[in-house]
């Protein structure tokens, strides 16, 4: 009859036999793993993707509002003569393209199990791209705010100025999302945690 492991067995009162089985020690922490745990990595990935999708949606709304104004032509103002509004439109288009490509890449990689880019390159593109597009969004909103404010003081509130104010607000909210995304991508880049 086999006795359980780790128990003290006494066969003769003068001799005591201790049967202890030892197994090799395996550390429970992988020293080569990224510094964040699996849960934190998953939260960073979801947060980054959610912020990019939100920025994509807000930039698309801003773009559509400005295009709506171009088609209406503002009745009394030649839209194409206002450089501030053309800049707002161009940055909205750039933001839609950037966030669309980044959201597609981040959604596609986990589903496929393959990285489209090297992790270091992807981290660098995320960090620099987020900062550049966020700066452009902020500068386009700050250039369009004064002319919209002046126009509101001269002619009062109308559909043209209200739509421009909404487009500016959407661009600013897209900037906020990309600024938070830049913080996450900077954290991933400088802690070498590539998702």
Automatic annotation (TrEMBL):
Spans traversing the lipid bilayer: 55-73, 85-104, 165-190
Origin superkingdom: Eukaryota
One family name in Pfam for this protein: CASP_dom
Broad class of where this protein is predominantly found: membrane
Compartment(s) of residence: Cell membrane
Domain Casparian strip membrane protein: 47-177
Keywords: Cell membrane, Membrane, Transmembrane, Transmembrane helix
Record-level GO cellular component terms: plasma membrane
Protein topology in the membrane: Multi-pass membrane protein
InterPro entries membership: CASP_dom
Family in the record: Belongs to the Casparian strip membrane proteins (CASP) family.
Subunit structure: Homodimer and heterodimers.
Protein name (record): CASP-like protein
Organism ancestry: Eukaryota, Viridiplantae, Streptophyta, Embryophyta, Tracheophyta
